[in-house]
């Protein structure tokens, strides 16, 4: 891949002829933007222009290489400085490299070629750094709450204000709300608005991990700590160091692990299973639950002392049915995304379909709305989605075979219907369907086993 990252270079050289020679050689790459100075002072006066690279003659009339290097690095630590000296002196070279010089070259027949290579390496590093910055900016944008979290209702505006506050302060956050209301999305948004945004965001769904494995998942284990621990493993808390750890479904933590978590939070250190050595950690904790934690405390299932430690800034996510016109805003956005990703003509919602969505109570909240809209886009005959294309609770889209409905039909059957439809669309490819619907493939296997769906 040809390199085309511009490099802004200062040449600081009091010997006019040598300076010209350096400029001539380096200007053979059109990406090099060169300025030439003959004194230290002139170089320092222009440092505000943030050059990427400086070639610095070791002996200048108004300063020696090591002092000048220090002055430059104090004011502009990121610049790469290549020191060019008239004499070879290994000790000076080592000392300069220790002080942060990028390279040390001696003036001889090969200086120009070595300088060319050295500048080429700086350019490659710059390119990588800029790509990294771009990627980081994209990630930041992705989790910019104003972009990733859709909604214009009062409740969502209030939520944005809380996300902003939580992003600026470094306190724990506890999120509550029904399933699918966006608790994890909000946790990520807070992380990506906080000073920890360049560090990991580690999410653990406490309810999804078997109890006997949870301690080692959270805190890690030493080799041989228990049968099957063939290697040492660091836990999710250590993984999240300096970043954020998000514990979803925190109310499912059993009482013995609640005690261990409390200790970790009090001591700010974790101990791997099978070890006695505490490891300091510094991660921001966010927790979420769809249960009422206060009630869990009252009923003795959740430790009161841990509850108060975790509470921090409590954020309650409103159910989708209470967000008014946001339902349609979200529905249209999910439709557009789905049609674009699948190269389909963009669908719209008929007036009757809109009315139906506004009346529905969405027990699965935003996650359910997303699945309903994606399925509707697949089922719709034309480009306009009609009420019969919406697989809402108690409403069955035409052409979707549902399993027998008992008293507790609905969500489970709706899920089965959606999975069945996707299995048809993806020719029975379970992995693809699991990825597309963001559900575990074991869920699909279980549905097959229970004959809720078929592979035919
Ligand atoms: N306001 C929103 N705007 C856009 N997408 C949203 C919004 N709220 C939620 N979603 C989407 O809905 C889905 C469910 O969100 P999320 O997983 O954050 O919910 P949750 O409350 O953590 O669910 P659970 O309690 O089941 O873990 C995700 O695909 C998420 O991107």
From TrEMBL:
GO terms for biological process: phosphorelay signal transduction system; regulation of DNA-templated transcription. The modification 4-aspartylphosphate is found at residue 57. InterPro entries: AAA+_ATPase (IPR003593), AAA_lid_NorR (IPR058031), CheY-like_superfamily (IPR011006), Homeodomain-like_sf (IPR009057), P-loop_NTPase (IPR027417), Sig_transdc_resp-reg_receiver (IPR001789), Sigma_54_int (IPR002078), Sigma_54_int_dom_ATP-bd_2 (IPR025943). Residues 149-378 form the Sigma-54 factor interaction domain. Keywords: ATP-binding, DNA-binding, Nucleotide-binding, Phosphoprotein, Transcription, Transcription regulation. SUPFAM superfamilies: CheY-like (SSF52172), Homeodomain-like (SSF46689), P-loop containing nucleoside triphosphate hydrolases (SSF52540). It comes from the Bacteria. Residues 8-122 form the Response regulatory domain. GO terms for molecular function: ATP binding; DNA binding. Pfam families: AAA_lid_14, Response_reg, Sigma54_activat. Transmembrane segments: none annotated. The keyword Phosphoprotein applies. The keyword Transcription regulation applies. PANTHER family: PROPIONATE CATABOLISM OPERON REGULATORY PROTEIN (PTHR32071:SF81), TRANSCRIPTIONAL REGULATORY PROTEIN (PTHR32071). This is Sigma-54-dependent Fis family transcriptional regulator.
